[in-house]
TrEMBL record:
Official protein name in the record: Response regulator
SUPFAM superfamilies noted in UniProt: CheY-like
SMART domains, per the entry: REC
A Pfam short name: Response_reg
InterPro entries: Bact_response_regulator (IPR050595), CheY-like_superfamily (IPR011006), Sig_transdc_resp-reg_receiver (IPR001789)
Positions bearing 4-aspartylphosphate: D73
Organism the protein comes from: Sedimentitalea arenosa
Coiled-coil intervals, chain numbering: none
Keywords: Phosphoprotein
Domain spans labelled Response regulatory: 24-137
Keyword Zinc-finger assigned: no
GO BP: phosphorelay signal transduction system
Amino acid sequence: MDDSDPFAAPTRIATANRPLLGLTILVVEDSRYACEAMRLLCLRSGARIRRADCLKSARRHLQVYRPSVVIADLGLPDGSGLDLIRELAEASPKVPVILGTSGDDTGEEAAIAAGADGFLPKPITSLALFQNAVLSRLPADQRPLGPRVVQDDSVCPDLMAYQDDMAHVADVLKDRAEEGKTLDYVAQFVGGVARSAQDTALEQAAASLAAARKSGAPVAGDTARIAGLVRERLEQKQAI
């Protein structure tokens, strides 16, 4: 989906307050909450945003247009964002800026090894850090000229988007709760979303499930715990 103004001029010049004017950013992210944060960051920065919630959708976008920046989550429902980063890094012409993102502390090393120009650890809420991550990696001839206003603000996504993520987790667990790959995806997805929303209890439950999967320990208790916490959040009609 393109959140840009359909009547905007095709070429826009960056300003001190909106240093990313003229850029189109493709955000490949399955979390509605994380996408909402990225939408607000792009809006405040002047960038156009297009969004894809899986690898298939991202590749479909890339067949139609060439974005200025791609920000790819490493954990996606139909595969790893690392695969997309490798494809983009090897493509010609190359997307000017490729950034990986994840709530996993080990994600940065993997993203850089796959060919990413940089990495954004979740939660991504700082306007200054977001703008710097993009601007510092743009080719010199594409960077805006002159000074820019450093806005040390943070965005706050609508918590209804977090509710959407909880509903997504509930659906995944309902349909494929016994599948190993599904549990790995749930642990990654829930961990990243919970960290972004500062939902400590759910983040800890996701970490416990991830550790159990890695060690080969029984996962029924951890899975039930996550399902229960998700159900509580949906029943309360609020994210946290």
